[in-house]
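Q: Here's a chain of 190 amino acids. Please give me its 3D structure as tokens.
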Amino acid sequence: MQKRHRIFIAINLPEDIKKELSKYQKKWEQLPAKWTNKDNLHITLEFLGNLTDEELGEICLVVKEAATKHASFSINLSRVIYGPLGKMPPKMIWAEGEKSEELRDLKKDLREYLLEKVRYRPELGRGFMPHITLARISEWEFRKIEPEERPEVNEDIDFIVPVESIEVMESELKRGGPVYTILESHQLGE
């Protein structure tokens, strides 16, 4: 049986931004949440699921091709909130980024190229909102907290994430949580 790889395409963050975002764990440590390891903080562009070695090779070529057609840009992270918006109880705490034309175009091209090469189910239905998952909330435990005692998670931030590359990442599920590995990094074009 062929080994399969749990693959996603992501934008990784500079170390200084990861460090600042990881500080929110102390601010809301009373929440029933599993906080994301600092080294795992990223923005997911596409989650592809379990792929064979052959499919993974195709994906790496497609991501490289898509990257060269887009210039570097920035994403402004503007607030830390419960996510997804309007969902109660919330599933996550995330740092939300502002939408941009550059990000929308990159994601659109990436999805089109990927759908030609591999079978996966892209998330459809709602618009893409760039975000970084800071924590996953235990919905069962969250419901036990009286509504008036639940901490408000809504804080304005101002971090600029330079997007100069996109990465093909593998997620390995381990006892201590997922471990993410960059398999390939592709620079965006000029």
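Q: Can you summarize the key feature?
A: Helices lie at 15-22, 24-27, 53-68, 101-117, 139-144.
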